[in-house]
């Protein structure tokens, strides 16, 4: 059973994808891996997991600013970019996986790590989304 209606899934996944990519422009020099980890364990992401309508309908730029102000206290860890389009792909994949398998994002990031996403990106980034997350589930989640 999915945590919220499929109608919202694409918007939420696209917003998370955008957020993971937009962080480069919003906070230049941020450690993108740190940011993804923090977001996946955040109160905001937990509200998305539960299908909270306030967050389901929030545009990505507003969600990002709200997250930075409220959950990062306008502070962040400096570091490296996560190469290429990997942040955007991981953002969509994590969000779709969370919805499809109805697993908490904080648990998902523990079982399918950023290193797993890096390792699987080359093979899965051109698959359809459902095929990609099923392969992540079968080859990474179940293997953990």
Describe this structure in words.
With 144 residues, the chain is an all-alpha fold. It has one domain (6-141). The chain contains 9 helices and no strands. It has helices at residues 6-26, 32-40, 43-49, 53-56, 60-71, 86-101, 105-111, 114-124, 129-141. The longest helix has 21 residues, at 6-26. It starts with 5 loop residues before the first helix and ends with a helix. The model has no long low-confidence stretch (mean pLDDT 93).
The counted number of beta strands is 0
Helix count?
A: 9
Give the uncertain stretches in residue-range form: none
- What's the rounded overall pLDDT mean? 93
Terminal Cα span: 23 Å
Number of domains: 1
What can be said about the biggest beta sheet?
none
Instruction: Calculate Rg over CA atoms.
Output: 14 Å
Helix/strand class? mainly alpha
Shape: globular
SSE string, helices as H and strands as E: HHHHHHHHH
Provide the β-strand percentage band: under 5%
Helical fraction = 55-70%
